[in-house]
Amino acid sequence: MLVGVPREIKNHESRVGLTPQSVRELAARGHTVLVERDAGAGIAATDGEYRSAGAAVVDTAEEVFARAELIVKVKEPQQAERRKLRAGQVLFAYLHLAPDPEQAKDLVASGAIAIAYETVTSEKGGLPLLAPMSEVAGRMSVQVAAHFLERPQGGRGVLMSGATGIAPASVTVLGAGIVGSNAAMVAAGMGAEVAVLDPSLEQLRRLVARLGSRVRTKVLTPEAVGEAVRGADAVIGAALIPGALAPRLVTRAMLATLREGAVLVDVSIDQGGCFETSRPTTHAAPTYVVDGIVHYCVANMPGAVPRTSTYALNNATLPFVLALADQGWRSALQRDRHLRNGLNICRGRVTNREVAEALGGALRMERSDPDAAIA
User: Which run of H or E residues covers position 79?
Assistant: First the structure.
């Protein structure tokens, strides 16, 4: 199969779909890989390294999209990239379609087969291709909160760990999944006072077994969120409903109960955000202030640490890329129901239930059965 890797063009996105090591695996199986010039610059992977791994390096994204049967990316295709997609071409990337009707409309119109990393499942019930970036984003979220709590960044001027005789920062984490548990681990490790809320007792038990008395846990309800947010120095939004819009957990009215200069970090922003006042930002302009509260809502947080993120992501995605290339998209999806769960749009039809429900009002999109779509 001819596999294409374009350079990412989303704002401050320096990750790349395939590392040279991943390219070598594909080439060893007889596949041809086209890599756009400088696609790996953000992870310090040179064009020469890609050539040594067996790739053909081409000058433009146009050539990659025009020739490749399978496009492997990191972030969702931007508008200029979506215009390059063609019917029958396979796209494998993070898509996050629920809050993005324009992207969904373009992908439907393209006739492409769009497989989303974030809805591929596993035998254990997890999301194996979302997990590595959730781990990175969860750990980063506390670094980000600590930075923007500094007074020169617009924050309260609070040190996460406090100091001798001075109380540490109060951090509330909404969600105890991969993002939330990693955020709680880092916050507790920095010496903050940490409260974690989640609707699942089992998730909270796992977190307590891991971190012990360093965190306080509560079952997530609207009342509990209001209490936990009140007076917090930082709130980490880590709520997730796979494929669907994130639940809105913090209302604008709750902002008045926070201390001025407190920081909200919405890791759920790529699924619409879990704070009522959230809107997507970029690494170029990561924050804004509402009612005296600093909001950080960067939709591609792991892009700030592209080397770590790309290699972690490739560890998870490569087996699926190999399956798509070796077997062809139709056979690979038919054989692997977990990869099939990643199918969001197929040749003009939406195939993911949560995406269809989220976009039903905006685009009047009805879900098509994925089995029928790939037959």
Answer: helix 79-82
Which residue in 96, 100, 106, 233 is the catalytic one? Answer: 96
Task: Give me the CATH code for the 131-304 domain, please.
Answer: 3.40.50.720
Specify the CATH superfamily of domain 2-120+306-374. Answer: NAD(P)-binding Rossmann-like Domain (3.40.50.720)
- Can 283 be counted among the known catalytic residues? no
Catalytic residue among 198, 233, 270, 336: 270
Residue range 107-166, pLDDT digits in tens: 999 999 999 999 999 998 899 999 999 999 999 999 999 999 999 999 999 999 999 999
Boundaries of every domain in the chain: 2-120+306-374, 131-304
Which DSSP string do the residues of 14-77 spell out, in sequence order?
---S--HHHHHHHHHTT-EEEEETTTTGGGT--HHHHHHHTPEEES-HHHHHHH-SEEE-SSPP
Does the annotation count 371 as an active-site position?
no
Query: For 15-70, how does the pLDDT look when each residue is reduced to its tens digit (9 = 90+)?
Result: 999 999 999 999 999 999 999 999 999 999 999 999 999 999 999 999 999 999 99
pLDDT tens for each residue of 298-335: 999 999 999 999 999 999 999 999 999 999 999 999 99
**R_g of the chain, CA atoms, integer Å:** 21
Q: How far apart are CA 335 and CA 262, in angstroms?
A: 49
Helix (H, G, I), strand (E, B) or coil at 263: strand
- Hey, do 2-120+306-374 and 131-304 end up sharing a CATH topology, with the first three levels equal? yes
* Span 184-226, pLDDT tens digits: 999 999 999 999 999 999 999 999 999 999 999 999 999 999 9
